[in-house]
Hints:
Mean pLDDT of chain A: 95
CATH topology of the largest domain in chain B: FAD/NAD(P)-binding domain
Structural class of chain A: alpha/beta
CATH superfamily of the largest domain in chain B: FAD/NAD(P)-binding domain
Low-confidence stretches of chain A: none
Distance between the termini of chain B: 73 Å
Radius of gyration of chain B: 30 Å
Low-confidence stretches of chain B: none
Oligomer: heterodimer
Structural class of chain B: alpha/beta
Largest sheet of chain B: 5 strands, parallel
Number of helices of chain A: 7
Helix content of chain B: 25-40%
Number of domains of chain B: 4
CATH class of the largest domain in chain B: Alpha Beta
Number of strands of chain B: 29
Shape of chain B: globular
Number of strands of chain A: 7
Amino acid sequence: MGSETRIGVFICECGSNIAGTVNCMELMEYAKSLPDVVCVVVNRYTCAEPGQQEIRRYVCEQDLNRVVVAACTPKMHEPTFRKCVSDAGLNPYLMEMANIREHCSWVHHFDKAKATQKAKELVKSAVARARLLEPQKELEVPVTQAALVIGGGIAGIQASLDLANAGYPVWLVEKAPSIGGIMSQLNKTYPTMD
Amino acid sequence: MMDVGRHPRIKLLTYSEIEEISGYIGNFRIKIRRKARYVDENECTACDECVEVCPVIVPKEHQMGLASRKAIYIPFPQAVPSAHLIDIEACLGFDPIACSKCAEKCDKNCINYDDKDKIIEFDVGSIIVATGMDVYDPTEFDEYGYTRFENVLTSMEFEILTGPGGVTKGELIRPTDRKVPKSIGFIQCVGSRCEKRGNPYCSNVCCMNTIKDTLLLKEYYHDIECKVFYVDIRASGKGFEDFYRRSKGLGVKYIRGIPGDIREDPKTKNLILTVENTSKGSIEEHELEMIVLSVGLVPRYDSDVIQKLLTLSTTSDGFLMEVHPKLTPIDAPTSGVFFAGCCEAPKDIKDSVTQASGAAARALTILSQDKVKIEAVTSIIDEDKCTSCGICADVCPYGAIIVDKKAKIPAKVIEAACKGCGTCAAECKFDAIRMRHFSDEQIMAQLEAILEENPEEKIVVFACNWCSYPGADLVGISRMQYPVSPRIVRTMCSGRVDEKFILHAFELGAPIVLVTGCHPVDCHYIDAQQWAQRRVERLWDKLERKGIRPERLQLEWISASEVGKFVKTMEELEEMRKKVTREEIEETKRILSKIKK
Lengths: 194, 597
């Protein structure tokens, strides 16, 4: 990787979820004008395999060292796109998301012009942040191979048995003096009547 | 239940409560209080001889008080572990001079009045929360006379009454005359689907439970007259509609309408119910010998305990909130924690079991690995700038920073203990702490981008990653609309929002700045949010002194489920924004640039 910052912006239409409100073509033209942006791609669904393939392809072909995905909330697909760029050889922390769906197209549904303008600024802000992103190394910690199940009702019992049968030690903690929960108070239950 | 008791890999701790949970995905440390049973669980054979001699009689919880038990008891015959315990509040033997009958009777010497609570500590890699729910108490629906008329029962009490383990050995009798009722009515949606009383949500299981009850009744008492009063019958599971049809085929009457009133005939103790039959458009009276209130499900009375221990949130209905209602319905927002059963939402047995197996599979994705990666959002100390003042260590909710103030040794961060809230970086006066992936420069650059053009039209919103940011997401998912002016900047915690971010936003021309995060009880970094509060309060004073209206800096706690509050806040801020003039913004810029110099 050279010292030059090379950003790829990937705009997701999310079917009509974003494209129905935000003018993605206009957004694309705008994104091209942002500093260090070397390519802008619009996809129908960026999270789907063809969309991810595009990201990987552009990272390699365009020698990208930052990726901005303008799509949904990072709470949903940040792990997806981190993995995607990492598969393309980029550190996962060099990917930034602009939330133009939950925080824009869905909440400003009736004002397409203003929503598009806001989407531009959200992308601009994400690009500004992306320029300053640094690769990060995640700490790897060992896993204690045992589970705690809190509550010994029907759900806790089932989960405990599944985990134990899979070969892992389980601590099942129940507040009452016996397991069984509400299930143990029921007579016959639907739909099997037993 | 038996399988759990015997399983070599399941360590069962009943009569136990969780006191502390620390650590993180792959490495949780658990502290349990195992309450004293006063009976040796391993030695007791549940022979019941102790029960026979016990002189104390109290209502039996497992039968909702419809039966009694002794002070020494087994919760129910099939209990696991199959062992007795002493209800020490009721027991007379705590003072052995008064009574020690059970101890004298027990050949195996299982009984020990001096038994003490035990603390047990252990480590796990993953946690499944399966804490269940409670059943709605219909007392507030006074028109149904639940507390006044003996022949009005809840569906849960009906369960106990008709169960084979009950006082009547499964025989249905009505409480007032101990006779099998000739007619019985079921009232649906008691405590459910009501905005004013009880809860607005559908409890999911009550329709099917009533249908099941009618089938049982028709099976055992062919002639019994059954009437069900309902709003809608929700029978949307596999085979459920057939079940409903079978009930109707057996002559059960389904009457669309929720009764407004129940009276009792003082002589016969029969119940006279008034209802508007909305199919016919008529007001009807029905005389019934017994009425069952089909009560809904509610969050457990003590669910706030587990919520605090694991820093979980709830949805507006009070049940525990998942990461995503559709795509990650089993995962808790805290990594390595999963939900099973009714703690997440009301559900029936089949759905509880399905979710439990799902939760087990999700937990296995962690347990089956030797190592897990932890997000690289941690703080780094710049030793050259650090003055060893110790403020960072004071504000760190996890004790992850060590400073030797006396020896003037610079602060040191224990990376595995740091959760990345960023409070230390925000509080450090010497800019000696850098947050990985949420650095000052990155956040400042975002602000500059947002406010470069027409800053007077923008509201800068600093939202925390766990409550307010996903709260804004949920507003979107709910398709609620709000003004276009807010620009949301994500930080891990509101504790990360540095004074200089706020001042920088004002300097760049922001008319309004909002700091929003979790409510104090919901903070995902124990109590880091309090530092945001203190900082903002400090800043209000500072702004006032400088001649900047403090109202332009707002602080609001908005949880991940408070969509209404989020929208209302945005609308209010928009009104405030409109009142901030260009002159005021320019004046603020001048004041702030002067301070800098």
